[in-house]
Design a protein that fits this description.
Elements: E1 7-11, E2 14-21, E3 33-41, H1 43-54, E4 60-67, H2 70-81, E5 89-92, E6 99-104, E7 110-115, H3 117-121, H4 129-133, E8 139-145, H5 149-152, H6 161-171, E9 175-180, H7 188-195, E10 201-205, H8 206-212, H9 225-236, E11 243-247, E12 251-256, E13 261-265, H10 280-293, H11 298-312
Helix pairs in contact: 1-10, 8-9, 10-11
């Protein structure tokens, strides 16, 4: 096989239906919907869109599941518009494409109503061993663990479907990376622990880290470097192969299996320049994945991840404000 190149982004694909409302209503009351927009989202979609905008020249492949419906057709249409192949997006007959109704009050917060649909139906059978044997990709990304019901399912042997998929990817010679999502799940730690031995790079924010750790974490010190580093080392003990990366608004921490400990602070973006925080974590992940793919040192990798995340705040979507890689000056 020739030298491996490219990134597979698998897992979470959704259609975001954003409704701008006047105010959040009381139960049984009515509120008016103003502007409505539609776009694709989820870990795999957002990371791929960001990588496309970075214009790295790397081959990129989407993987996941959609329904045989209008929302599924929209995802296919958007992928083609980004120049992405769609042959490995499985179509689930009789199952709705995953989608989210986002209720947004301008200047305040957003509330999400999520239908898991095709994401919940994604399973290990959608990633047969040949999938990875016959690809020349270098890196396999899966997101979001803990929000993919079929892959998160824990079997009688204590293993998840996601663990089996990640094991297949590693056995075929790919690096593996997993990203999490801030969702309440009664088996959050168990799901991550089951996958960890087959994950080379585990990426998360501080909230997700607090849901995995066995430490007694004080919310007031959750984002302190010492706390994040200690959690990172704990997660390496679960079997993560190369590094745990925990990021928050102020800093990012790299805990390497080789003993590397790195804390990298984030230069804040002026509030006047922030349009939306939507997808900033996915933009961070995209920058990190490119750096990992290219074998960058941890400090430089975090530098790009932070820069991509920072510039993403200037746009409404996760990727629209991201410039080509050539625009970043990462020492």
């Amino acid at each position: 096989m020739t030298e491996r190149s490219g990134i597979i982004c698998a897992g979470h694909w959704i259609v975001d239906l954003v409704h701008e409302i006047d105010t959040w209503p009381d139960e049984s009351d009515l509120t008016r919907i103003g502007q409505q927009t539609r776009g694709i989202g989820g870990g795999a979609a957002n990371v791929l869109a960001a990588l496309v905008k970075l214009d790295t020249g790397l081959p990129l492949w989407p993987m996941g599941a959609i329904g045989d419906d209008d929302y599924g057709a929209f995802i296919l249409e958007q992928c083609r518009a980004l120049g992405l192949p769609t042959s490995q997006l499985a179509v689930k007959q009789g199952i709705a494409t995953a989608h989210t109704h986002v209720m947004s009050v301008p200047g305040r917060s957003r509330t999400f109503f999520y239908q898991g649909g095709s994401n919940d139906a994604l399973g290990a059978d959608d990633f047969p061993a040949g999938t990875f044997r016959h690809t020349n990709a270098h890196l396999f990304y899966l997101g979001y663990l803990t929000l993919l019901a079929g892959l998160d399912r824990i079997g009688a042997d204590g293993r998840t479907e996601a663990a089996r998929v990640l094991e297949r990817a590693q056995a075929a010679g790919l690096l593996t990376a997993v990203d999490l999502v801030s969702v309440q799940h009664p088996q959050f730690r168990e799901i991550v622990s089951a996958a960890a031995p087959f994950v080379d790079y585990l990426i998360m924010n501080e909230v997700e880290a607090s849901r995995i750790t066995a430490m007694a974490v004080d919310p007031n010190t959750l984002t302190e470097p010492a706390t994040l580093s200690e959690m990172g080392r704990e997660f390496l003990g679960l079997g993560v192969g190369k590094a745990v990366v925990i990021h928050c608004a102020d800093l990012a921490v790299w805990s390497g299996a080789d003993g590397t400990e790195l804390v990298s602070h984030v230069e804040p973006l002026p509030a006047s320049e922030i349009v939306s925080h939507l997808g900033a974590g996915d933009a961070f992940c995209a920058g990190l994945l490119y750096a990992v793919h290219e074998g960058w040192a941890p400090g430089r990798a975090l530098g790009l991840a932070k820069a991509v995340s920072r510039v993403s705040l200037k746009g409404v979507t996760a990727a629209e404000s991201i410039p080509p890689l050539s625009a970043f000056d990462i020492p």
